[in-house]
Amino acid sequence: MLRGVRAWGLAIGCALLGGCGDGGAGSGTGSTGVSSGEVVDPTGGELVPLVLPNVWKPVPAAMDPLAAHRPAQVQCPLGGWLFEPQGLEISTLLCNYAMFSQPSRAAIVKGARVVASVYHFDLVAEEPATAHVALLVGDNLVWEQDIAIPGKANAYAIDVPASFAADAGTPVYFHLHNHGQNTWTLGEIEVEVFAD
Questions:
Q1: DSSP helix/strand/coil, 195
Q2: What structural domains does the chain harbor?
Q3: Rounded to 5 degrees, what are φ and ψ at 99?
Q4: What three-state secondary structure class fits 155?
């Protein structure tokens, strides 16, 4: 059922946006699907939730793994972000920088697939800029995109092998910053697990 909900959320995003981007290693401007070493057969495991959709919390500056991206003044009040049925929604009109986290609900083995969805509506700003969006587990970068603004709406179906192993309870981070009045949604994040 969870996979159905994730697929439904991505399908809605794709329908609203008029198409979906490929979230793999070759998609978009500056896309990074980080992987190395031998990859486990992607057909061998079952996808389970890595996080819960409605327990994301803002990360304080001292604990931000991408602190170099952080502006001197961060304004991201409740209302700039909220929980929607499709996932965590962030409005950059009110939120100039977002770093959210929660503990992972499952362990990750090296080579396991990490599957997620992110979409945004049209990206607008008075001056050209670049948006940056990233997904991390602990200190490990799972996926990121640098996206030119202005730009058309897009959706990303992320499906990348983990280049690391991580215990359950490791912080999962979602990062976003860009300039302008833009709306982004992070759907569910799942990880592949294997039978003993």
A1: coil
A2: 2-65+73-193 (2.60.120)
A3: -140, 110
A4: strand
At 19, give phi and psi (nearest 5°): 140, 165
Q: In angstroms, rounded to a whole number, what is the distance separating the alpha carbons of residues 7 and 99? A: 24
Q: Write down the pLDDT at residue 179.
A: 73
Judged by DSSP in three states, 163 sits in coil
Residue type, 133: V
Cis peptide before 85 (omega within 30 of 0): no
Q: What angle do CA 50, 53, 57 make, to 5 degrees?
A: 95
- Nearest-angstrom CA–CA distance, 142 and 189: 11
Whole-angstrom Cα distance, residue 157 to residue 159?
6
**Model confidence over 157-188: pLDDT tens digits?**
999 999 999 999 999 999 999 877 789 999 99
Tokens linked to 17: 């946006």
